[in-house]
Specification:
By secondary structure, this protein is an alpha/beta fold. It is built from eight helices and seven strands, in the order E-H-E-H-E-E-H-H-E-H-E-H-E-H-H.
């Protein structure tokens, strides 16, 4: 149904991501106000925050999930508020594993009376959007059990077959070229500052005005994507 969207903030949870997390916490209301404002077609949303790190280093804490919350800004902010940037070791991180995992969680049955907060809505009922924030490259081969040995092509296929719109805020690195080829992907490339992508993202997020504009543009992009949902 047009006007409905499920979105996930998929956030790199490693140590260098503190500035980005704090900026998201500070500006989430600006994002939600734009997403549901008078100029937006979005009238019904579900959102959640998912954190990933490095499956090879962080063990069971490499992936931390939350349930979808429905039209509930304070609950979404609560999910953001508990984020803590830690772990990960040196890059790369397990972004491919995380994208693969959330692409394959399944969907609520079309005839269900209630929505399952741990599943996507039935795909013709709502657009699906994943927004990634990271300052790191990724392992090119997955290592979590359900994706072990797979690569970027497997992730791309999972994203496209499940009609997910991918929005990346990620380093201006060649590894992201392949993900950028996914249908409807939007990639905001983070430049290096002093030879560091982490500093590049930190510079963006520490400028509150600039980051507010980023989230306003993001909300408008999501709104445009839900005008005609996939069947």
């Amino acid at each position: 149904m047009a006007g409905q969207v499920d979105f996930i903030f998929l956030i790199d949870g490693t140590g260098s991501m503190t500035p980005c997390m704090e900026a998201l916490k500070s500006n989430i209301n600006i994002f939600l106000d734009t997403l549901t404002g008078e100029q937006s077609v979005v009238r019904d949303w579900r959102g959640k925050v998912v954190t990933y790190r490095d499956q090879k280093v962080d063990g069971s804490r490499w992936f931390e999930d939350n349930p979808f919350v429905k039209n509930d800004g304070p609950s979404l902010k609560t999910q953001l508020d508990v984020l803590k940037a830690e772990g990960g070791g040196d890059e790369p991180e397990s972004l491919l594993d995380a994208l693969h995992k959330i692409s394959l969680v399944g969907q609520t049955d079309r005839a269900a009376q209630e929505l399952d907060p741990h599943l996507w809505r039935y795909r013709s009922d709502a657009a699906r959007v994943v927004v990634v924030f990271t300052d790191a490259t990724y392992h090119t081969t997955m290592s979590y059990p359900d994706g072990e040995g797979g690569g970027v092509d497997d992730v791309s296929n999972a994203i496209m077959s499940n009609k997910i719109i991918l929005m990346l805020f990620a380093p201006d690195d060649v590894c992201y070229d392949k993900l950028d080829e996914i249908d409807k992907c939007q990639w905001t490339a983070i430049p290096e500052v002093d030879s560091s992508f982490a500093k590049g993202l930190e510079e963006l997020t520490n400028d509150s005005s600039a980051f507010s504009e980023v989230l306003i543009a993001l909300a408008k992009s999501i709104s445009a994507s839900v005008a005609t949902p996939e069947l």
